[in-house]
Task: structure prediction
Amino acid sequence: MGLGVVVWFGIGFYRKKPWRLVMKNILLTILLLTTGLAGSAYAADPELSSRFARLALDCVHREYPNKIGHVMNSDADAGTPSQLHPVFYGCFDWHSSVHGHWLLVRLLRVGELPDEMRQEITAALDRNFNAAGVAGEVAYFEAEGRKAYERPYGSAWFLQLMAELRQWDDPLINGWQETLTPLETVIVQQLKSWLPKLAYPIRLGTHNQSMFAFTLIHDWAQTAGDEEMAALIRDKTLEFHQGDVNCPLAYEPSGEDFLSPCLMEADLMRRVIPQDKFADWLQSFMPAIPTDGSGDWLAPGVVNDPTDGKLVHLDGVNLSRAWNLENIAASLPENDPRRAALLAAAKIHAQTGIASVSAEHYEGSHWLASFATYLVTERGLGP
Result:
């Protein structure tokens, strides 16, 4: 327990948290280190749900600052973010807007929120999920020179949003899903055209990484019942990764990573091969996972300047590593001696990552809550 508390205190005081929050996180740290999955220790905390939802509510309609990855074919293509993207124009960039909307839908469905906040979330989503806005988004994606726009990261997050809507049988939610379906159709078609042409995996620790996108697309395909997409993801995953061995985890993270190439690959592979085969594959792929239950074999990433939009990515790598480690452990047999060390490392990463999620700096606040929500609601493990 000592290492986890020390790690949290370093982050907590560096971020200058109020004492009430410091004491609360100390208690949560103890809970994390004495219970099961890292995310589940936080999942029942309504204050965290409200905190994460507030961050998304504060940015989904915030147009500036904004970073647009915009291909212009002529002067006519110039426009403000909300003109170019009538639905997903907030939260600094398109993909963050998409997963900010996903966060709100996710917490509306599974989170513990006060009634007033639930009403605020519903109104915010209903405002943006409208037919005219979606038509504008579709037109943007279908324009010349944009078939690779937000591929694969933003496209995969959009499908995660659609998967969330599909898992909720409610008249209002069903209406949102129907409204967004034209954009879903375009994005799915573009991905199905791209996947057979992809000759190599994209082993980055940032947006273009193929492994993380494949996990979200796979989960959408399962929810949507799209057997063609499921087969494309499964076949490409096995083609790219079935023979991988000795992943160099010691070389991670890079200085701007928010995804772990090694851990995300394992999190993807567990989805497409049986448990017994996955356990053997993991031994070859990551042979150095301890069997002594220790958690200090994988140190969390360090952020030295949370006002730097690239350096703050390391707060995200701690959150995504935490869910990777949890998911990998959950996919091994209960008596597998590696599970304890995986879960111990997950707890340390979870407490470090969650402590970093605040409204203090927009460089992190516009996106980190989505990663934290994916972790604490255990989205990668089921409904």
Summary: The chain has one domain: 2-381. Residues 2-381 form one domain.
